User: Fold these one by one.
Assistant:
Number 1:
Amino acid sequence: MRFIIETYGCQMNVADSELVSSILISAGHSPVTDIDDAQVIIFNTCSVRDHAEQRVLGRIANEKHRKSSNPEIKIGVIGCMAQRMGKRLIEIEPGIDFVVGVDQYQHLPHILEDAESCAEDALQMDKTQVYPNVMPFRQDKNCGFVTVMRGCNNFCSYCIVPYVRGRERSRPVNDIYEEAKSASEAGLHDITLLGQNVNSYQFDGYRFPDLLRKLNNIESLWRLRFVTSHPKDLSDELISVMAECSKVCEHIHLPLQAGDDQLLKKMNRSYGVDHYLGLIDKLRAAIPGIAITTDLMVGFPSETEAQFENTLRVMEAIRFDYAFCFKYSEREGTAAASYEDQVPEEVRLRRLQAMICLQRKITLEKFRGQIGKTVAVYVENFSRRSDDMVSGKTRDFKIAVLSGGADKIGGLSKAKVIDATAGTLICE
Ligand code: SAH
Ligand code: SF4
Ligand code: F3S
């Protein structure tokens, strides 16, 4: 059958869609890029905020008309929302034919044959599942992900991920090495290691810094990155390995969430603001020019105006290169959803806007600070704006555009930054 996967949520879902594609292709099905050609439409979903769930439900409602003109068409839901809601999804949206949870993707070929069979098992969580022996089918030829662990043990009080993804488990170090080696030999020279808490990787005595050291030896690999790091697991050893390994890029994504100790405690983040600031100092001292990006949340239950201001002050002190700013969303079953003092929606929205506005200003200043510098751009594709421009990434995770054509794609270009917006370096 011809299938298409529409992916929502984080990079873990992007990587999982590549796994699922690979599983389906091995079973004889073929991927298509135009939904009009698809006989199977799969939505890989996210549950992290209510908005993410509503969006996907809207998309499914929009696409189910295809089944009335062609009753052969099947619609499936996989990913975190499938895991969270299971059969309830089919009750809400009867257009859905099958729902498969995050640990059962190997059964998808079987489920496609008979949408009814396997229905019970399709939602089982499997705390050891790491999909051994499945080589992802990669859409992007130049840069991509290698999953190193699945699940999360942290139970931040607002977060649904540990419930839908299960407990943390690391993949065998040799599997990761082999996958990274063969992918980079096939042209994937910029690899991002993936895990919900990637720096707590641990397999047979191998810890995350050991893994970086090992992968740094792969000749065909040019750049190595990783997301997402938790501040509680950012050891001095990891910082020195980042500094010492030539391929590990000068960038870290280190979610702060809030710049207030009381809030961080209620969030169950297991660090305080001083610890976080200390990490930033160590990173900047060890890795000159390192870019630091983060996740921040406004409107967590009981957040006062003063606490929110504390977060803004910490943002000003640190000056992140970029911050993903989110408005707290209650997730049924998490600890924070039962806290009494929920912040009114309009207050959440106002704080979010103020936060985004502050970060935009800092990001623009940071990007403009690069003007005049020479950067190495790993060119990934044509620029979205024009056919005689290409775009890529710098080592410190900034999007850069420069003039050029197909011959530049997949290679490194040295370029001078001549202008910048709050998201793109314009180079020559
Ligand atoms: N494991 C990663 C990613 C988690 S989800 C990490 O720990 O950083 C990505 C981001 O979504 C989180 O960092 C957090 O800022 C945000 N997020 C998680 N749950 C949320 C919720 N209930 N409401 C709003 N934002 C949330
Ligand atoms: Fe969620 Fe916290 Fe785990 Fe990240 S570390 S996935 S925020 S529980
Ligand atoms: Fe969303 Fe699941 Fe990722 S809830 S953020 S897709 S792990």
Number 2:
Amino acid sequence: MSMPAAYAAHSAASQGRRWPEESSASRAEFQRDRDRVIHSNAFRRLEYKTQVFVNHEGDLFRTRLTHSIEVAQLARSIARSLRLDEDLAEAIALAHDLGHTPFGHAGQDALNECMQGYGGFEHNLQSLRVVDILEERYGAFDGLNLTFETREGILKHCSADIAASLGDVGRRFIDGTQPSLEAQITNLADEIAYNNHDIDDGLRSGLIDLEQLAEVPLFQRHFRIALTLFPDVAERRRINETIRRMINTLVRDLVDTTNERLTQRGPESIAAVRAAPPLVMHSEEVRAESLELKRFLRDKLYQHYKVQRMSTKGRRIVGELFGAFMSDPRLLPPQYQAKADIDRARAVADYISGMTDRYAMREHRRLFAVEDI
Ligand code: MG
């Protein structure tokens, strides 16, 4: 492996953990962060949380877990190309969705609505809350006690109000500075991953088709190449050949454009990266194409009536669970009852957001299905 660049985050120069710990003889700090995320409860729950398709709809669809692993793969290879810290990129990628509710964005929207008047609910902020507070693995402290750099990467966006309550990790939202390049690339790796895998899952589910995708230039261009190269293979293989080419185009464009920016700007340290404007980006053409892809997914897949039906159900389950626990906290499991004594709404939101899709459905049945008494 080549030497990390001067502008990379360096494990040995980390701004540290909230509770000081001795360093490990065999593992770098960001590597330990990555390992802690993998061993967390919240990470294992990602397996049963919806990305777009509810987990039980089919075994081949992405879940939050496989999505996070794909993001980590992309972030890691982009980090390697740019001589950044691969462990940090991977730690941020694996942790970035830990705070997601069951039922994808529908669940988050429902919980956020319920939490109006109690400080709201935002999955990105919740991911930080999971690693800072909610995981219970250590004797001496709550949370996973991750480094500042991993925590800052997890917190992708944040209002100035909330940022002010978060201490050091919120400061950049107030003073308008940037996070590490590792955080910046992971953010874009997330987009590359979901745009492409949602096309793939969308086609597999039959909710979108190849004819509709003729209006998406990025797809169409690569599909034509795949068709020329492989005129006789099964369509599924041709789709895979198309998608791998799309991912490759996006990743290469990101690496090339970012490399140019880094050469122009020449940041000599992570401090210079923080003070500079965002340095990780796509070229104008590719950005425009990827926006078109996004728009297509929003109109044709995320708003498809079959996806909407699932979303509506998910919203209803989350809303009704919230209402039941708020009006009678004695329905909560004991460890959450204790927390509810301090802040009822936040304890209920923590409990619900931690649920997997199937656990939320089971819990809903236990509370509302009269025939199950
Ligand atoms: Mg994501």
Number 3:
Amino acid sequence: MRILFIGDIVGRSGRTALSSRLPGLITEWKLDLVVVNGENAAGGFGITEAIYNEFIDAGADAVTLGNHSWDQREALVFIERAPRLIRPLNYPAGTPGRGAAMIEAKNGARALVINAMARIFMDPLDDPFAAIDRELAACPLGEGADAIVVDFHGEATSEKQAMGCFCDGRASLVVGTHTHVPTADHRILPARTAFISDVGMTGDFDSVIGMNKDEPLNRFLRKIATSRFEPASGPATLCGLAVETDAKGLAGKVAPVRLGGGLEEARPGFWP
Ligand code: FE2
């Protein structure tokens, strides 16, 4: 199965990159499953129903979230009628929406998509390891699902790598999101789960993690907020991770994807 995970879409620049490139990539690379992190899609903060629909129309099979899940308040309501929108699993009981969903892939396969939030330098949510363990135990890879995708949204590399080890052999891929900077440690772990500490953003890299440079710089220099954070509006780099799985749902190939914008281009050589 051919899976593409696309990192955090930031603002209009990121949305434009996704909608202009994704339909072509699905055809060119014969993708079976596309998962997109959309928690920064609406002006950098949260997601609206219109944007969610735009992502699905562009070919995303599932959209994951993170610490900005509810920045657009409408998400608390429309998530209930958006079956492919997945918020962190380890929010308190009673939180709207779902933290994991069984998604029908483009090839008809069953893909379990899980989103969870890390806790180091993040909100103190429920234990993400215990929460993910319950999901994986309830739905063994190769039996309950043909592929399992884990989006682990967090700041600390150590916590994200620990989650990769924790899920090794039980998920097809574990992808770190949230820092907006792609790491170079994409690899297949010993029990054949594909992993990257952070997949990076789909946004304008002439920025401070996707935001126009002026206000972040001002806050570092003066410690006084003078305006809102606004997404940078230059051309975006689409950052992702390409993974090919076998009949058991385990990873056989992994490669970084970087297209457009200011970063050096990377494409999966195994999907010519
Ligand atoms: Fe985030």
